[in-house]
Amino acid sequence: MSDLLPFIRAWVTDPRKVSAISPSSPALARLITSEVTAHNTPVLELGPGTGVFTRALLDRGVPQDDLTLIEAGPDFSRLLAERYPKARVLQMDACRLGRQGLFGPGELASAISGLPLLSMKPRQIMGILSGSFEYLREDGAFYQFTYGPRCPVPSAILARLDLQATRIGTTVRNVPPSSVYKIERKSRPDILQTA
Question: Which DSSP string do the residues of 33-93 spell out, in sequence order?
Fold first, then answer.
């Protein structure tokens, strides 16, 4: 209930940016963070809103100071900074992630996204993914949920960035029901070295 009022306030102010009818459920939070542990850090979270996924990451043992939270909304950013004082909270547009020099190449292990990709333009999705994968290590993964029936990243964008998406699960215990996709670099065959 403590998340409902800030969520409604943000939704009334700009429904396109929130692009959900209610905060994410604990079931969705558990699903989207299910493969992240204290060994898959540091973690980047995009569009954390009220911090439902952030709490789930902490419950999985991720240290608060290993979290960077990127939130465009000023009210949500303030709320996150109060709730998670040891986390790095940055108020900014996730589409410009790669231009900010926030991390070194390969510094991040995981990225969790609560961003409404289905309501975004292809160039915005490209900016989010290319920026995230600039910072993710080779075996790093980007987790995205969707209300839609398929991966919210168009196949042309996945192909252009040499990425692949796998659905890791669906929960009906969210309004509306949601699926989570793991997006990662395509595995490459080992290259034989000649002596």
Answer: TTT--TTS-SEEEE--TTTHHHHHHHHTT--GGGEEEEE--HHHHHHHHHH-TTSEEEES-
Question: What phi and psi, each to the nearest 5 degrees, are found at residue 51?
Answer: 95, 25
Burial of residue 40, with CB atoms counted within 10 A of its CB: 0-12 exposed, 13-18 middle, 19 or more buried: buried
Are 51 and 23 within 8 A, CB to CB? Answer: no
Tell me the percentage of the chain whose pLDDT exceeds 70. Answer: 84
CATH code linked to domain 4-185:
3.40.50.150
Going from N- to C-terminal start, the domains of the chain cover: 4-185
Burial (CB < 10 A; 0-12, 13-18, 19+), residue 149, is exposed
φ/ψ of 96, rounded to 5, equals -105, 20
Q: What is the mean pLDDT of residues 84-91?
A: 98
DSSP bridge pairs for 169: 180
Cα–Cα distances (Å) from 58 to 13, 17, 29, 66, 123, in that order, read 29, 25, 11, 10, 32
Amino acid symbol at 96: R
Q: How would you class 193 by CB atoms within 10 Å of its CB: exposed for 0-12, middle for 13-18, buried for 19 or more?
A: exposed
User: What is the model's pTM?
Assistant: 0.86
